Amino acid sequence: MTEAADITPDAARVDRLRAGLKRRYARESRFRLYGLLAIGVAVGFLLLLLGRIIDQGHTAFYAHTVTLPVYMDPARVDRAYPQGTNFEQLVAEQQLVRLGVQDDAQGTLSGEMRGLFSSELKFAAAERVQKQPGLIGQTVMIAAPASDDADLYFKGEISRATPSDQRRLSDQQIAWLDRMKADGHVSAHFNTALFTNGDSTEPELAGVLGAVIGSALMLLVTALIAIPLGVGAALYLEEFAPKNRITDIIEVNINNLAAVPSIIYGLLGLALFINWMHLPRASPLVGGLVLALMALPTIIIATRSSLKAVPPSIREAALAMGASRTQTVFQHTLPLAMP
Fold this sequence. Notes:
Layout (H helix, E strand, L loop, with lengths): L1 H56 L4 E10 L15 H13 L8 H7 L5 H12 L7 E7 L2 H7 L16 H12 L3 E5 L2 H4 L12 H32 L4 H13 L4 H15 L7 H26 L2 H9 L4 H13 L2
Antiparallel strand pairs: 1-2, 1-3
Helix pairs in contact: 2-3, 8-11, 10-11, 11-13, 12-13
């Protein structure tokens, strides 16, 4: 009886321990599940965002070109100055004739036809005539981008089913576009102009080249200013500056500046660089200076953390071998702190 009484409390305690372990393992499993669910939700939203961007922006990578035969009427094409010829009106009138449409006295239909072609048409035609004046009096094929509205229609962004008062193309213009496409005058191609053109008031001619170059120049200015200043400040604070109240205040302010919203830096750049220093508003220099101010606290903090990761024995060994403090920092500590 005594042995049975001694075993029973031990067995009950073991059961309680097992139940506690089971509950703990269950909580850990639920925690891992919650973490996986959180990651899955974040990845899902990221994929949704990327999907929306691709769905709405993939059509920018291809465009449509309209190629039409144009008779270079000697009575209307100026041989000496072809740029002064209204090629858009000339092409529109000839295309109406091919479609069997009679324009009115006000030129309303020819105006609608001109709206289907990009303004690049007149420059392409004038360049052809300037290089080959002998084309005057002949019929030549002129290729030009479709206007932004016509391009959107070919891409399916503008539908005929949409009420006419809610779209930018009339039923007549849509019928003309369908006719030109059926006749083989419209072709789709990769939109190289997206990467070779700068900004433009004509959407079909706009590209990202100007923005890419401007961003590259701005980042170059940022790197040239922020990296030397940031690394130099971090070296001084970590290796040379005395540890006193002033350096403590500087460190606290650097940490605080790293958390300042970017809009504050933008307002500072507006007030300091544009309104006071009168730097050009569209210059990459202004953007580079503002980004340099934003990046300085982060660079200083990251550089100081890298310097702290260098073992003190490296510094002590260099100093013991007779190196100066500056030689130790620049020839041993800084190279080892680099990524």
